[in-house]
Amino acid sequence: MTAEKPIVLRLGKWPFSNEKWDKLKEIATVVDSEAKNREEFLNELKTKHNNVTHVVRTFPSVEQTGRFDSEIISALPDSVVAVSHNGAGYDQIDPQPLTDRNIQLSNVTTPVEAPTALTAVYLTLATMRKYQIGHNSLVQGNWTNPDIGRGVKLGKDPEGQTVGILGMGGIGRAIRDRLQPFGFEKILYYNRSRLDADLEKDAEYVGFDELLAQSDVLVVSVPLNPKTRHLINKEAISKMKDGVIIINTARGAVIDEQELIKELQLGKVGAFGADVFEHEPEVPKELYELPNVVSLPHMGTWTTQALKNMEDFTVDNVEHHIRTGELLTIVPEQKGHEFKHSAWV
Asked: Where is the D-isomer specific 2-hydroxyacid dehydrogenase catalytic domain (predicted)?
């Protein structure tokens, strides 16, 4: 147990979690970064925040600090024991330099699962049934043209179709659970390792190439890291069924976007539904203007409930660490590493 209160440095805005922060302030001192750019943040760490113990950050706070890479992490004071990120994807942060400095890293897990899965369901149904094309046809006045029958080619129902889920973590399993009642013939998945039976449920574990070959709809749900960047590339797409539908609610750079555009134009990929893009917020016009693309501006957790739950979860992570020396959630790259942190209260 340490004598002084821990100091929590907040990056970004936290409009939904005031009650949680007020509670945390009973056992910790909370300070906010005023940095407007990376240079100012690095200077703050040297002059104003050289005794902080916990850092909490939002996804948009990258505009304040830039990427949490080895330069930033090496500048953190020795007093820092944990970094808590308000988001499921933590590709803005390099875990290894934190591990090397005995700093734990947490992300948000369960609060993002349901809202992200609902977004994947919407994109799946919209692309299969060609709802976006139908909407555009109505707006363009083609519905009443008897020669083209609503201006939309026939879509597909889930009946007889196989869904493949690439990545069966918490979000992948939430997607599976919400797609299953729609009546797909099979739900396959590929993961780094096979799930235990209680987590696997009725999904079938297959190899990566088999997943590509069998899926009528491929749902991407893997985190972005050096191993998954452009995992879906020209070679991978060549192994898929002609007319495959690809859904991405993970990270845009898991897919080679330029190659995807070519395959959509050629018809090898029949449709694409995405909430994420490789160079957000920049999205190629040649991609989103394709009629067989349903695109959203990263809205997976864009609800009042989801944002509150995520912020509260992040604060809970900090409070738990202060009370126990351990985070509620720790990123996979740090699992198995022995951190020796003391509780404050």
From this structure: 62-331
Mean pLDDT of 75-80: 96
Q: What is the rounded distance in angstroms from the CA atom of residue 175 to the CA atom of residue 217?
A: 13
Instruction: Indicate the pTM of the whole model.
Output: 0.92
Report the run of H or E that residue 58 belongs to, with start and end.
Answer: strand 54-58
The answer to whether residue 320 is catalytic is: no
Active site residue 298: yes
pLDDT at 1: 42
Among the options 34, 71, 235, 280, which is catalytic?
Answer: 280
Classify 168 as helix, strand or coil: coil
Give the angle subtended at the CA of 223 by the CAs of 123 and 160, to the nearest 5°.
40
Confidence class for position 140, pLDDT limits 50, 70, 90: confident
Residues 6+ apart with CB under 8 A from 26: none
* Residue 129 half-sphere exposure toward CB, CA atoms < 13 A: 12
Residue pair 85/61 in contact (Cβ under 8 Å)? The answer is no
Rounded to the nearest 10 degrees, how much is the dihedral formed by the CA atoms of 187, 299, 314, 337? 50
Choose, from 298, 326, 333, 341, the residue flagged as catalytic. 298
The answer to whether 331 and 170 are in contact (CB under 8 A) is: no
Q: Provide the H-helix boundaries in 168-279.
A: 170-179, 197-200, 208-214, 234-238, 257-266
Amino acid at 74: S
Q: Which of 251, 263, 278, 320 is catalytic?
A: 251
What is the rounded distance in angstroms from the CA atom of residue 136 to the CA atom of residue 288? 13
pLDDT of 3 strictly over 80: no
Instruction: Provide the pLDDT confidence category of residue 148 given band limits of 50, 70 and 90.
Output: low
Q: Are 250 and 298 in contact (CB under 8 A)?
A: no
Enumerate domains of the chain plus CATH numbers. Answer: 7-107+304-334 (3.40.50.720), 112-295 (3.40.50.720)
What's the pLDDT tens digit per position in 177-209?
A: 999 999 999 999 999 999 999 999 999 999 999
How many Å apart are CA 137 and CA 295, to the nearest integer? 17
